[in-house]
Amino acid sequence: MKARKLAVEGAIEFTPRAFSDDRGVFATPFQQSVFETANGAPFFPVAQSNHSVSRRGVVRGIHYTGAPPGAAKYVYCASGRSLDIVVDIRTGSPTYGRWDAVLLDPEELRAVYLPVGVGHAFVALTDHTVMSYLTSTPYVADNELALSPLDPALGLPIPEDIEPLLSERDTRALTLEEAAGRGLLPSYEHSLKLEAALSAGVGAEPRATGRTA
Fold first, then answer.
1. In three state form, how does the secondary structure of the chain look?
2. Where in the sequence numbering do the catalytic residues fall?
3. Is residue 78 part of a domain?
4. Into how many domains does the chain fold?
């Protein structure tokens, strides 16, 4: 497995070795030893796994978890094809306002690690795009926030041949500047502290409510 640091501080792309034969393909999208070498810290305790199915054109995000409690994620595409996007929304971060994108599919089986405090979005490039997530905290509706994926100041790389299909929540979401003005964004310093506590296995887990996202 190969690891590559992305343009957003703390975000990492992982590419496993795929083994193919006449039966199909086998790969390991997550390897703890590789993750810990690339990240310089243990993998977070997994509190929840999520599974979403989207048709072509669906854009989910930009979603993030308020900090505290914050949430780290490990994401890969089990079926279909998606453009996964990580956005640095942590005030004070050296890469604040930047994004990076990774093409995810079940052939290469790349995975993306999103550290605490960053925003996450993806574009479904085919019908029946299946995204799988491991998250460090359970879904609590009151902690989940969203920014507009169509914010012109961010200029996310939504393909020109895609007509974005957004949820009502994402359609109404604030721009990065608006959210910053309202004090809704996590800070870089606080996000790092929360992530360090996760790696150390410290901190109480919030009670899950509502549906998964």
1. CEEEECCCCCCEEEECCCEEECCEEECCCCCHHHHHHHHCCCCCCCCEEEEEEECCCEEEEEEEECCCCCCCEEEEEEECCEEEEEECCCECCCCCCCEEEEEECCCCCCEEEECCCCEEEEEECCCCEEEEEEECCCCCHHHEEEECCCCCCCCCCCCCCCCCECCHHHHCCECHHHHHHCCCCCEHHHHHHHHHHHHCCCCCCCCCCCCCC
2. 63, 133
3. yes
4. 1
Distance CA 67, CA 189 (A): 11
Q: Is 213 part of any domain? A: no
pLDDT tens for 61-114 read 999 999 999 999 999 999 999 999 999 999 999 999 999 999 999 989 999 999
pLDDT confidence band for 183 (50 / 70 / 90): very high
Is 204 within the bounds of a domain? Answer: no
Contact (CB, 8 A) for 85 and 196: no
CATH number of the structural domain spanning residue 167: 2.60.120.10
